[in-house]
From TrEMBL, chains A, B, C:
Name this polypeptide is given: Cyclic-di-AMP receptor
Alphabetical UniProt keywords: Receptor
Origin: domain of life: Bacteria
Origin organism lineage: Bacteria, Bacillati, Bacillota, Clostridia, Eubacteriales
SUPFAM superfamilies: GlnB-like
One Pfam family from the record: CdAMP_rec
InterPro entries: CdAMP_rec, N-reg_PII-like_a/b, N-reg_PII/ATP_PRibTrfase_C
Length: 107, 107, 107
């Protein structure tokens, strides 16, 4: 038995949660205050058999991998003309810790 | 030293917290958002000596074990007659992970 | 790789967070409801290389070690005279668990 502790940005946490649940994993979400990702994040606790750790990591990565995105950006010039151009920003990214479980009980 | 991480339904978390504290265990409760139990739950962190893990699990189980309860249920029939009869529902249930502690410090 | 789980009183959690971040550690803070410290506390998750565990513990201890402080205290006497005298109170104190990380992924 392993415990997967994953820190997922809030933009992706809904999709991560849905994807894990759909595949039959029990997911507990902890409210996170602040954190090392700028926008706030959610900490997931997922208990799983050893041989499904790869699948859990793959699901989390699939829904939250660090990626770039083009977003509109606006610059105002002196003469009152607006110029909107796309800027590439990096979003997403998760940090995943896998811990050994010494004992597991469901009561 | 072990760290017990227990996910307890909110119906039972007050009793679990009180029972652990009464027996002298240090309890930290994490706010949990959503989760695999329907009604919301609380994640407990309890640090304990190896030989007291059984006691911690027994206390948590004693206050939160999955159990059935009869609740009133109402059915309305066509002819305007109400029938209230008890329905058996399952409540409670906790998930408990025990982790090895590599090092423990109180400062 | 180690995961440091530290429960820090809310009086000190801002300083602990700032000091860890300044030294380059990735810090995740979990909202804690109640707990074994009277005033509420914050649970920190810090992932770190094995050889930096001492540094992490030292930073946390340096900002949150249990200590005494003199605070003003006021007694009102029968004859309407106030006497303000300092009282020594204990503040701070953190509980730190270090866990082995079986696998670590940043995606
Ligand atoms: Ni196992
Ligand atoms: Ni031990
Ligand atoms: Ni290591």
């Amino acid at each position: 038995m392993k415990l997967v502790l994953a820190i997922v940005g809030n933009d992706d946490s809904g999709m991560v949660s849905a994807a894990l649940t759909k595949e039959g994993f029990s997911v507990t979400k902890l409210a996170t205050t602040g954190g090392f990702l700028k926008k706030g994040n959610t900490t997931f606790i997922v208990g799983t058999e050893d041989d499904k750790v790869d699948q859990v990591i793959s699901i989390i990565a699939g829904q939250s991998r660090r990626r770039t995105q083009l977003v509109p950006s606006t610059t105002t010039m002196d003469i009152g003309v607006y110029s909107a151009f796309p800027v590439e920003v990096t979003i997403g990214g998760s940090t995943i810790f896998v811990l050994n479980v010494d004992r597991f009980e469901k009561v």
